[in-house]
Amino acid sequence: MRGMTQNSSGELYALAHEHLPSDVAERWLGLLRPGIRLAAAGGDEAVVGQLGGEPRLPDTMEWPEWEGQGPLSFIASVDCAALPAGALDIPFPASGTLAFFYYDGQADGEDEAFVEVDDPQTWAGARVVYVPAGASTTRLDTPCELEAYPHVPLAARVGPTVAEPTHPQIQEVLAPDAEPFSEYEHPVCDDQFIDGLWQLDDEAGHQLGGTPRSVQGPVELEVARAALGPETDWHDPRLAGEMREWVLLAQFDSDDAADMMWGDTGCLYWLIRRDDLADLRFDKAMFTWQCC
After folding, report:
1. Which pTM does this prediction carry?
2. Phi/psi of residue 48, each to 5°?
3. Residue 137 structural domain
4. CATH number, domain at 34?
5. DSSP sequence for 192-241
6. How many domains does the chain have?
7. Is residue 193 in a domain?
8. How far apart are CA 133 and CA 97, in angstroms?
9. Is residue 1 one of the residues assigned to a domain?
10. Beta-strand (E) ranges in 133-180?
11. Is the pLDDT of residue 7 over 60?
């Protein structure tokens, strides 16, 4: 199931109280987490980042590459100081720039290479670069092996996010005795309520922080399993605890304006442990992607 919706708290409040018992509605609403939605800037909206185009990187830094495969494509960047201050419940940087790179296959030779969360040998194919505020930077030209994605300025819109009912953060509060990651009998699993959420918003979208809007089940689960070891059984009881350690740094959806298509209308995700985020250890971030 794809991750749940992000909308105004008023819309979600009305939907919850329409379909859920009052006490359940309030408990469910209490599980909403703030996220920052990124969308193409329009009119006089403040620009906080960009999809595509070309990045500004420290003067001493070369274009990121996956050794043995080729250069990574520049996906997006975000000016942390331009984001709404204090909007997130994670220690997101208050300044500096985050730039996201991903090996999208443009530089493939005879053999196709894919970045897979369960294959550590491919992890070099996705990277987060943090550029501190005040650093001397240069706008780098896209390597000749690649075609830059069209430049799309981004604006920020803060809103609540919530996980799907089988996500541990929901289950442990509303159905602590339910089988982890499995559907269970509860009003939040009712088809009418789920359909109502879909009608509010059915796209993954571009997002910073909050609960990831997954396409095929919780992305935190994929990252937790990779962190514990790719051979970890999907039913290992440690997975739920490990999932809680990981928070969404950013996700970038397929986007027509930026000519981005990840598989079949998929989405790219970067997650990181809270402590590593607070300490700006972005080399510890992990990447996964999902598609329909």
Report:
1. 0.92
2. -115, -5
3. 9-290
4. 2.30.320.10
5. HHHHHHHHH-----EEESSS---SSS-HHHHHHHHHH-TT--TT-THHHH
6. 1
7. yes
8. 7
9. no
10. 137-139, 152-161
11. no
